[in-house]
Design a protein that fits this description.
globular, MAPRE, 8 helices, cytoplasm, Actin-binding Protein, T-fimbrin, domain 1, about 230 residues, mainly alpha, single chain
């Protein structure tokens, strides 16, 4: 099946700003481009062709993360071959695109957006899975995105249940210095006296007292009766 060709890139109300164009690319390809100039690698256009015409490019040959100019050229040659295969009447200006200048890359992206809209069938496409999870673009979460033209990403909201299940740290009360018990020395002395009194009481049980406390001689113990 041949592609629908697009020849005109005149300025219309459909033309988007650079921010909107990057948001469209990032939404379609799950990429992280922050500048139009980053599209000079050609990898994004190759995957767009795979999205529009499955099998028109060999995905394993595409260099998704590269800073080498000769690999940019390789990607754009893959794109040009896909154009020829699908009868796309467009010459890719490889020499200008790989230089990474804004104007050249923005003009080509504007044309490609119109070409995409004319040929996209609406089929679901998991771009990140198709390229094996490889990242494109250097922006991360700061890259422009949106569900539509000029749409902004809503900030992530933490569910209330997540906050409820989070353990709460309770402060451990510190022991005040006044709460520590102070030993009573007088009580210790009284306890010692009490112990001495108990010893004296035990010594005087059954009417016997220590020899030094009894006046006079100590009587001898009574003789035990002999058993007959």
């Amino acid at each position: 099946m041949a592609a629908v060709n697009v020849y005109s890139t005149n300025v219309t109300t459909d033309n988007l700003s650079r921010h909107d164009m990057l948001a469209w690319v990032n939404d379609c390809l799950a990429s992280n481009f922050t500048k139009i100039e980053e599209l000079c690698t050609g990898a994004a256009y190759c995957q767009f062709m795979d999205m529009l015409f499955p099998g028109s490019v060999v995905m394993k040959r595409i260099k998704f993360r590269t800073n080498l100019e000769h690999e940019y050229i390789q990607n754009f040659k893959i794109l040009q071959a896909a154009f020829k295969k699908m009868s796309v009447d467009k010459i890719v200006p490889i020499d200008r695109l790989i230089k990474g200048r804004f104007q050249d890359n923005f003009e080509f992206l504007q044309w490609f957006k119109k070409f995409f809209d004319a040929n996209y069938s609406g089929t679901d496409y998991d771009a990140l899975a198709v390229r094996g999870g490889e990242q494109m673009g250097s922006g991360g979460l700061s890259a422009p995105r949106g569900g539509g033209h000029n749409a902004k990403r809503a900030p992530s909201i933490v569910p209330a249940t997540a906050a409820a299940t989070r353990p709460i740290r309770q402060a451990v009360p510190k022991m005040s210095q006044t709460s520590r018990p102070v030993p009573n020395r007088n009580q210790g002395i009284s306890n010692q006296r009490g112990d001495a009194g108990k010893v004296e009481e035990l010594n005087t049980q059954d009417g016997f007292a220590p020899p030094e406390d009894v006046d006079g001689d100590v009587p001898p113990p009574p003789n035990e009766e002999e058993e007959y």
